[in-house]
Structure formats: structure tokens, C-alpha cells
Amino acid sequence: MSRSAKARSYWLRFDDEASACPACASPRIVPVDEFRIPRDARRRSVRLISGCRDCGLLFSNPQPRSEQLAAFYGEGGEWAARHAERLRWLEAKTRKSPFGKQRLKGRGKRDVLFDAIAPYAPVHTPPSGARVLDFGCGDGKMLDWLQRRGWETYGIEPSMDVAFIRHQRLASLPQDQRFGLIILNHVLEHIGDPLGLLNQIAGALRDDGALFVSVPGIDALPEHGDLRYCVNGNNHPICFSEICLRGLLSRVGLAVTTRLDSQELDDAFTKGRPLRLRLLAARTAHPLVLPGRPLAPATRALALHARREGGIRDRARRLLPVRFRAALTGRSRKRKKAPV
Q1: What is the DSSP-derived secondary structure letter of residue 23?
Q2: Eight-class DSSP state of 190
Q3: What letter does residue 165 receive in the DSSP assignment?
Q4: What pLDDT is attached to residue 27?
Q5: Furthest-apart CA pair in the chain: how many Å?
Q6: Is 193 in the same domain as 278?
Q7: How many CB atoms within 10 Å of residue 47?
Q8: Distance separating alpha carbons of residues 38 and 232, to the nearest angstrom
């Protein structure tokens, strides 16, 4: 058996580990890295990061099950419980003054973001009857901003209700191309089926509409150094390079019109660190043709990060189980005999 065949045979050694890509369902997936998770009775101390050779997606392996994600983010789930006190305060504040107050001086972070979007979508001056959907709208702050400018505002949010004191709630994505703007702000990295969601998003977007999507940026990992922000075994189970996300968008008939990348945005949202990838997309008749190795940008970023952190081989020697490590190196470990 070849060395690569040995690695594959040892890699798929647990029933709950994925054998296909969560996005494109390709079986051409490979282990590319690993990270620690808390040791307890339910989980192993090491989880793999796998990559898809066909679309370039990175994902933690095993993946959380769909029912686990639904329970975590659903009403009364762990996410809502963690933020319960803030949500109670925010709901009371919103009910007391449902339309809030205009910012009188200075610019907030949403002003910075929508000013960056404005050259590509009419966020400041929407046409009559223009509709916006924020999928995963949270407390509705982005919708608040857009409503003040004249947009009809809709949201989808399973974890909390506070946004729907002001905005219209949807249970699912309508497939009638009614929205001139759709926002996917840090949602895709939480989803078990990102390509399925993007396909529904495309069905809800007008021919002349715009999609804003923001996710953790794996391409900038060597610079910002926060691997667990990009991908982990809990709330960020999947991760995208820019070429991967462009490719998934193209599969549903959308093309990236621009990348929103500025120090002002990083200063407003992430304390100056380049943690996020922000793209605007629109319908296209000319889908993107992916390069021959779409996984390469992500693996390159991981390799550069590992070199900065002390080398991937040292980390693998320290963290990976002995059997898996032996398969990767083509060697087996011999036990020493106890002295007589």
C-alpha cells in the first residue's frame, strides 16, 4: 500500500467523519491540518481540518450534525442562552423607542460598511418599493440603518426576536426574486450546506440586485494568525478562501462584482486586523471557471501560518494520534519491551 493510501485508510477511522465535501458533495477530500478541542467524554482532543480538491472548501472533520446546529442556534438554544441578558436589555430598549435615534455626529461602523457598498448598490437612495433581506439578521442593526434610508426591511433569524419589533420576519427564503439587496453577514461559516443556501439566495435576488457576503478570511491567516476564528469544531465548522467562495457563488449563477477590502473597514469591525473577507455579487450569465487547484490558496495560507507558529510537522508530531501519524510518515511505531 502506498503512503497516501495508508494515510487515507487511517484518516477515515471513525463513523462520524465526513467522506464528502459539505458544500459540493465531492468525495475528493483530503486532511490538511488539525487543531485541539477541549477533551471531555464526548469529543476527541484533536479534530482534523479537511479540504475539498474540487471546490476549495475547508471544514472541520467530523462536522456537527444539522440537528446539532439547529439546536445550538435555535430559540432557547445555547447561543441565545449565552446572550440572554443582553437580549433582554436590547428588547426592552427597542420596545421603548422602536425607531431609535439618528446618529448626530461621527460615523458608526454600519455607516463605514454601507458607504463602501454604495458605489455598487443604492443603499443610500433606494428606488420606491426596494426590499432588503438580512439572512441571519441578529438584533437587526443593519436593517435599522437601511430602514431609515427607505428600504422595506425583512429578516430571517432563529435565535432571537428583537429585530422583528421593527422589521418583517420570514421563515424561509422566497424564490420569486423579490429582493434588491440581500445580506449574508457572517452566516455561511455556520451552515452545514452552504451551496444549498446560496442557491436559495440566488432564487430570492432580483436580476439587478446585489448580494453582500462576509465570512472569516482564511487567505489572510498568515497575517492575522487566528485559525480558530476561521474554522473550528463548534460554531465555525466550514471556511472559505476567496477563490472557493467565488466558485460556489458561480455555481448558483452569481458573480463577484467587487471585494470590499480597506483599512477603514478593518478598523471599524475588527480593531484593524484583516479577519474578514467581504464580497459583493450579482447575477451573471458567465460563471467563473475555477483554477485547476482551488484548494491551493487555503493550503498555502495554512502552511504559512504553520511556519509562523513553529512548523506543521512539529504540531502534527505533538497532536496527532500515533496511528494516524505513522500512516502519514509511512512508518509504524514499535513498542519498547519492558525491562525484565
Answers
A1: T
A2: G
A3: G
A4: 96
A5: 89
A6: yes
A7: 22
A8: 11
Does the reported pTM lie above 0.85? no
Residues 75, 177: one domain?
A: yes
Residues in the chain: 340
Per-residue pLDDT, averaged over 10-21, amounts to: 69
How does DSSP classify residue 162? G
The answer on 308 and 249 residing in a single domain is no
Rounded to an integer, the average pLDDT of 265-288 is: 94
DSSP of 240-300? --HHHHHHHHHHTTEEEEEE---HHHHHHHHTT---EEEEEEEE-SSPPPPPS-TTHHHHH
Do both 53 and 187 map to the same domain? no
Residue 288, judged by CB atoms within 10 A of its CB (0-12, 13-18, 19+), counts as: middle
- DSSP, collapsed to helix, strand or coil, labels residue 146 as helix
Range of the domain at 137: 70-283
Q: Residue 178, class by beta-carbon neighbours within 10 Å (0-12 exposed, 13-18 middle, 19+ buried)? A: middle
Using CA atoms of 234, 243, 286, 117 in order, give the dihedral in degrees to the nearest 10.
80
Residue for grid cell 474578514: 276
Residue 91 placed within a domain: yes
Shared domain check, 140 and 80: yes
88 and 60 part of one domain: no
- Residues 223, 77 share a domain: yes
* 113 falls within a domain: yes
Find where cell 467565488 sits.
Answer: 246
Residue 316 is assigned to a structural domain of this protein:
yes
Quick check: is 135 in a domain? yes
How many domains would you assign to the chain?
A: 2
The candidate with the shortest Cα–Cα distance to 159, out of 143, 144, 137, 174, is 137
pLDDT for position 178: 97
Taking the C-alpha atoms of residue 94 and residue 334, their distance in angstroms, rounded to an integer, is 66
Q: What is the mean pLDDT of the chain?
A: 81
Q: Are residues 160 and 108 in the same domain?
A: yes
154-200 pLDDT, tens per residue?
Answer: 999 988 888 999 999 999 999 999 999 999 999 999 988 999 999 99
Residue 38's pLDDT is what? 56
pLDDT score of 322 more than 60? no
